[in-house]
Write a structure and sequence with these properties.
Length: 482
């Protein structure tokens, strides 16, 4: 059965949760940039629950700034902008819902005028983003917008933006003229994402729209957030599974773990949905929760992905179930990382770490090791290098973290059984790969702080020697038996 407005009653009769609010009356009060899998499983599910409970009355206009599959958008439109979310628990429990908050779509590459119209609309009180770390064109090493990025150069010189930052800046210039404040909220896994987004917008506008800087300070809010729900990419098998098990014909479904978490900084300047009514946590300070999640979840994902792949493991749940990797991650890596965390209000950290391992072990998610291993230089900078630096400065050994870092460097060197290199998907591949035989140059270019380089370097050099001689599995086995 195809998802559509006219089929919602029949889908409900199958036991599927469907939108029961009046979708025809939804106006776009939210604009979102980045219509990806995670956004559809996370933000739009929270919003759908608010709408279903009668606690909000606005919809979302979706935007992409890069070209996407026309078949995907065509399919979503044919389904009246609805899609399914299949929640999968570790015990095998399945729950299917149809989400309905989306009211329209535009792509900045094809229709920039429509995108700017939506982003500057006085009806839109909230703009959200899930564009991944790369999408902000931000350089961690210099804590600045990357003014050498060709797309940013283009946007500074052109009246037609191409990046999310360029579109937002242009929209703010339009909003300033009509004095329509807005809250802009990043939902990406970036430390202090709101502060980073504010910096990117301010630096861009200072060069292109300096006249609106004072207005931005008084009329635009950039709350920080922490988001969490493991959501792999959809495969053809997922689409077939829905047809065979639920009789649902959906060309753009998502599947995700049942667990989800959202922590939002309470710094809004416009009316926004009260997501706390459906389980989100609204707090004065997001940072403790953010550090916990990025360092323990995202960092552990990176720390297990590279050794797992070189040990022949392709799926995340298989890696988490491997006794060697499991012991290294849970009993050694996570314990060292925990020493760098501040107290997290209301959270039992040992229980949180146990739950992470259970989530990683969920066989129904079918998450791939290579998804976790992509964009390593971006992820590792925040999730591994920063806690490593803090630990070393405080006199901690951090040997498990240094081993994880060494294995990532070894990933650029290692060969498979056929003599082929590892499948590296990294924005800094061309820069880091030639340096992988030179640990000092590699660590410097990866972004490790100079003051902790000497103690880190000697340990990494020893680990790399052992990895080249004996391989990942043997080195891990020796390490966990210490």
């Amino acid at each position: 059965m195809r998802i559509s407005n006219e089929n919602l009653g029949a889908l409900k009769n199958k036991g599927i949760t469907v939108p029961e609010y009046d979708r025809s009356g939804l106006k776009a009060k939210i604009a979102h940039i980045g219509l990806g899998h995670f956004h559809r499983s996370h933000f739009l599910t929270y919003l759908d629950e608010l709408l279903s409970a009668g606690l909000y009355d606005g919809g979302v206009f979706e935007i992409d700034t890069l070209p996407v599959s026309p078949d995907f958008i065509k399919g979503l439109k044919a389904q009246d902008w609805m899609y399914s979310v299949l929640s999968l628990s570790p015990d095998g429990t399945r729950d299917l819902r149809i989400n309905g908050p989306v009211v329209g779509y535009a792509n900045g590459a094809a229709d920039p005028e429509k995108v700017l119209e939506i982003l500057s609309s006085p009806c839109v009180d909230l703009i959200t983003l899930t564009i991944t770390e790369k999408g902000y064109c931000y350089r961690d090493d210099i804590a600045s917008l990357d003014f050498d990025n060709p797309a940013i150069i283009h946007d500074l010189d052109s009246d037609t933006p191409s990046t999310a930052i360029g579109f937002l800046a242009a929209a703010l210039q339009m909003r300033c003229k009509s004095n329509h404040p807005v809250t802009i909220m990043s939902c990406d896994n970036v430390p202090e994402n709101g502060k980073m987004l504010r910096k990117c917008i301010a630096q861009f506008c200072k060069r292109k729209y300096p006249e609106i800087m004072e207005w931005i300070e008084s009329s635009v809010a950039f709350p920080c957030t922490m988001v969490d729900r493991i959501t792999p990419g959809t495969t053809d098998e997922d689409i077939i599974f829905l047809k065979q098990n639920f009789d649902v014909d959906d060309s753009c479904p998502v599947h995700a773990e049942a667990f989800r978490q959202w922590v939002i900084e309470n710094t809004f300047c416009t009316p926004v949905p009260d997501f706390s009514r459906v389980g989100a946590l609204v707090v004065d300070d997001v940072r403790p929760y953010e550090l916990m999640k990025i360092r323990l979840l995202n960092g552990s994902h990176s720390a297990l992905s590279y050794p797992a792949y070189m040990m022949g493991i392709k799926m995340v749940h298989e890696a988490a179930g491997n006794p060697l990797i499991r012991k290294f991650i849970r009993e050694m890596y996570m314990e060292e990382i925990t020493r760098t965390l501040p107290p997290v209000p209301g959270v039992d950290i040992p229980l949180y770490k146990d739950e992470l391992i259970e989530r990683f072990s969920n066989p129904y998610i079918a998450d791939t090791i290579l998804r976790l291993a992509s964009d390593g230089s971006k992820k590792i900078s925040n999730a591994i290098l920063r806690p490593l630096e803090e630990g070393l400065r405080n006199g901690c050994e951090m040997r498990a973290v240094l081993l994880a870092l060494s294995i990532w460097e070894y990933f650029f060197i290692a060969k498979d059984a056929n003599g082929e290199g590892m499948p590296i998907d990294d924005p800094k591949k061309n820069e880091l790969e030639p340096l992988a035989m030179n640990p000092e140059a590699f660590l410097i270019h990866a972004g490790l702080a100079p003051d902790v380089l000497p103690p880190a370097l000697s340990v990494v050099e020893n680990f790399l020697d052992a990895l080249r001689k004996s391989g990942v599995e043997a080195v891990l086995r020796d390490f966990v038996s210490i």
